[in-house]
Amino acid sequence: MLAKTTYAIRALARRVRSAVFLHIASVTGSSPQGLSAARGAYCILGLIVLTMFVMGWASGVADASSVADHAALLDAIRHVESGGNVLAVGDQGRSRGAYQIQAAYWHDACEFGGVEWDYRRGVLNDAKCRQVVLWYAARYGAHTDEQIARCHNSGSGWKNKYSKTDSYWSKVRAALCGTEK
User: Fold this and answer.
1) Residue 104 and residue 31 share a domain
2) What domain range includes position 27?
3) Domain total in the chain
């Protein structure tokens, strides 16, 4: 994982450097080779932006657009799982929090997200739980609201348990539509 991340960061740094050089040439109308001071300033600025991006990504900052895109679904899952009770405990103590997440699910999703969030405290944090649900779903190929809900309910093998999650999806869909019973 670290090698893949390092490779991606280096590739991004090369693209930023090339874009900066091309921008310098287009703005000044001259060759970037003759503009060492400006080039150095642009490189420093590019590295600062790159560092901010990498630090935010590596620290596990939630992908706001992804969470926002599925806000209604995540609200519905929370409602179906626990009625919004962050202190809920189910499955003979194996599932915890408003989203009823088990430790293995949590660690699996956090590994995919590249973070090490504490399970016992994390399941009490709504923002972290929402991100964990989406990371888990992404890891196992669930992208639509229906797929994410089914994956959350039945785990990594959700594609092979489709009929077993029909009832759960019906409850989530009803909560999404505001027609839950």
Assistant:
1) no
2) 2-58
3) 2
Q: Do residues 79 and 19 share a domain?
A: no
The Cβ of residue 34 has, within 10 Å, a number of other Cβ atoms equal to: 11
Tell me the β-bridge partners of 90.
95
| Burial tier of 151 (Cβ tally within 10 Å: 0-12, 13-18, 19+) | buried
pLDDT given for residue 27 in this prediction:
58
Q: For position 127, which CATH number holds?
A: 1.10.530.10
Instruction: Tell me the average pLDDT of the chain.
Output: 80
Residue matched to tokens 């990498």:
54
Given the structure tokens 């504490």, which residue do they identify? 118
Does an H or E element contain 89, and which?
strand 89-90
Q: 113 and 54 in one domain?
A: no
Positive or negative, the CA dihedral 44, 49, 52, 55 is negative
Q: Whole-prediction pTM value?
A: 0.65
Q: Which amino acid is at 116?
A: E
Ramachandran category for residue 11: left, alpha or beta (phi over 0 → left; psi -120 to 50 → alpha): alpha
| Greatest alpha-carbon span in the chain | 72
Place of tokens 């919004």: 84
